[in-house]
Amino acid sequence: MAVIKCIIFALLLLYAAISDIRKREVSDAVPVMIGITALIGITPAELPGMFIAAAVITIPQLMIAIRRPGSYDAANPSYGGGDIKFMAACAFLLGLGRGFLAIIIGLSAGLLVTVISRLIERRKINEAFPVVPYLAAGSLIAFLI
Question: Are 49 and 95 in contact (CB under 8 A)?
Answer without folding.
Answer: yes
